[in-house]
Amino acid sequence: MTPAMQRGASANRPGPLSWIAAALLIVALPTLVAWLSPYPARPSAGNHHRSIARREIPPPPVEPVAFRDMTPETARMANAAVPFSTAPNPAARPFRFSGDLPSLARATDCLAAAMLYEAGEDPAGERAVGQVVLNRLRHPAFPKTVCGVVFEGSERATGCQFTFTCDGAMARMPAPAAWQRARKLASAMLDGAVFRQVGYSTHYHTDWVVPYWSSSLEKVTAVDTHLFFRWQGWWGTPGAFLRRVNGEEPRIAALAGISPEHKAPDAPLPAISPDGVALPAVSLVDDSAKPLPIDASQVGRRVAGARLLAFTEEDTSFAVLLDRAGGPAGFETIARLYCTGRPRCRLLGWFDAESAPRAFPLNDASVASMAYAYLRTKDAGIERSLYNCTKIPNAPLGQCMKRQASEPTAAAALPTAMPLPGAPKVERETTILRSVRPPTGPGAGAPPAFPAKP
After folding, report:
1. Predicted pLDDT at 46
2. Are the CB atoms for 448 and 282 separated by under 8 Å?
3. Which of 217, 259, 390, 435 allows an S-S link to 229, with CB 3.0 to 4.6 Å?
4. Which residues contact 103 (CB under 8 A, 6 or more apart)?
5. Contact of 367 with 246, CB cutoff 8 Å
6. Can you state the percent helix, strand and coil of the chain, rounding each to 5?
């Protein structure tokens, strides 16, 4: 290296002050990044003391649900005036239940009840509610079980966290198809499904009410008419949702009417059909109501949401043309309207007018093209909704019609204990019931849509 090159190299070499400044920057950089980050870092050797200090601060209190006295219009204006948080809204980490199978079955039904009674038959709303329940489950401010979170405070007339648990709403039994769908969504969320939009929200309410606690939380997002919130500061960040749960779910007596897993050990076992599906604990129809009047003048006309094609003289069997878009819940609503007040009733539905019957008894071609059947004999304790699952792919699990490819007869299409008009009479209708405990594990009136809750 020439003398000139040596002088140039020496001139570019950092002086002592530059080395000191660089060292200070390296030391201060982690602190600066942690201070700028909206969420605290995981504990490490450098920030362990900071994590300890945060954990020593007790979780915020969980306030009872109470609302400010204002009209829905005023409440909507007040809620709209509160801006959404501009801080990041990361999706919650997937949650996977780790308890035994009986506990998993009880957790599934508790979560499904919260999702259905809180959100009605709205899949997005149901998943949003389910995510809030799981967020609470992993936060130290709430109980350590799914059922504990959902039914927290339910022993009180006021102050429960999810008001359907203490306002009498559970006396209104869900439609079987809606309950099946809610259980399917709940099972998926307990196996890692995440509803990303609500992030780590732990509270929500409808936009036409203003809870007292809403001003102290950050408004995160909206799902339809519902607003979702998280706590401010450390307790609203992902680092606060690290609690381990025990997975030992309690029995909830209030759910025993729709959930066999929540019945007391010595309670009577539910009736089980031959395909292993529990029959509904409460009838779809109202026996105290007057039957819908049906006469020959209505044949070919739209009655109670479906076109009436034929009926039996004794007014117990009806053939109708269904709108495919109605879906399982819509079909059960029509069955309820036709069969309410009738202890023995069959509603049989078709999508295609050409293959649908015009009189009873039915022929094999009509039976093969049937889309839906509701069958009930009150005295025998038999009640089922059955679906042609090749025509209704979103039918509830375990409720598909059984068909035999070689001999498509009326008896093959439906349970022999519920014969179609014109089919051979069955001597003992109760033979399809057997009192055995259903398989343990997940799986299998409409409620108001998403009422104002925590």
Report:
1. 38
2. no
3. 217
4. 97, 247, 248, 249
5. no
6. 35, 15, 50
Q: For residue 327, what is the enclosing H or E element?
A: helix 327-339
- The pLDDT of residue 280: 56
DSSP conformational letter for 272: B
- Residue found under tokens 């009872």: 64
pLDDT tens sequence across 269-319? 555 444 444 555 567 788 888 898 999 999 999 998 899 999 997 768 999
Among 100-109, 171-180, 306-315, the range of highest mean pLDDT: 100-109
Rounded CA separation 93/99 (Å): 18
Token output for 201: 């929200």
CA distances from 428 to 271, 278, 416 (A): 16, 20, 10
Sign of CA dihedral 270, 276, 282, 283: negative
Q: Is the pTM of this model over 0.85?
A: no
Other beta carbons within 10 Å of 391: 16
CB 319 within 8 A of CB 357: yes
Q: Which residues are CB-contacts of 82 (< 8 A; sequence separation ≥ 6)?
A: 214, 215, 219
Edge-first strand order for the sheet with 203-206 is 203-206, 226-231, 217-223
Which of 36-40, 117-121, 364-368, 435-439: highest mean pLDDT?
364-368
What one-letter code names the amino acid at 117?
A: Y
What's the pLDDT at 348? 96
Give the integer Cα–Cα distance in Å for 25 and 409: 83
What is the average per-residue pLDDT within 237-261? 87
Largest distance between two CA atoms of the chain: 118
Residues 6+ apart with CB under 8 A from 305: 323, 326, 330, 333, 334, 337
